[in-house]
Design goal:
about 170 residues, five-stranded antiparallel sheet, alpha+beta, 5 strands
Length: about 170
């Protein structure tokens, strides 16, 4: 395994951790109207006037369900990519497959990033597609997800450099 393959594997793993972390946290959308509310794709948490925080599993809109499925699919692709890059130490041909799996994962992440803001119209947020109300902002989980996309793209560039034919 050469240095570029190892570097791309580390970056893919980092992107995978960021994507998993973004799903685990309910901080995709944060608002302070009627108490502090944190909306996520897996949990919704609300604290009203200093009382203990209550977390529930939200009923996701169609747009957010699609985003969730795309992110989970992207995570699975990146995990398989990391495994194939590790296996490339013994069998060099697996790098080619890891590149395509990573490309599919990157595409799924980008689809999720495009479709997620369409769901801003839900009652809990009260916005319009691609437009949050003034009292609402994106949270740290969404930033983690965007970082996962960034690391995936950079890793894909390194993997592409590795897979170029040697003349």
């Amino acid at each position: 395994m050469d240095k570029l393959t190892a570097l791309s594997g580390i970056l893919f793993f980092t992107a995978d951790v960021f994507a998993i972390g973004s799903l685990a946290n309910p901080d995709w959308i944060v608002t302070s109207v009627a108490g502090n509310m944190r909306l996520g794709l897996t949990r919704q948490c609300q604290m009203i006037h200093g009382r203990p925080e209550i977390c529930t599993s939200p009923r996701l809109s169609t747009e957010w369900m699609f985003s969730f499925v795309c992110i989970v699919g992207g995570i699975l692709c990146l995990t398989a990519t990391c495994a194939l890059l590790f296996a490339s130490h013994w069998r060099r041909a697996t790098v080619r497959y890891s590149r395509w799996l990573a490309f599919i994962g990157m595409t799924l992440f980008c689809l999720a990033a495009i479709v997620f803001p369409v769901g801003f119209h839900i009652d809990e947020i009260g916005g319009q597609p691609y437009k949050l109300p003034n009292h609402t902002q994106v949270g740290s989980s969404y930033v983690l997800f965007i970082m996962a996309i960034f690391f995936t793209i950079i890793s894909e560039l390194f993997t592409g450099k590795v897979c170029l034919p040697v003349l």
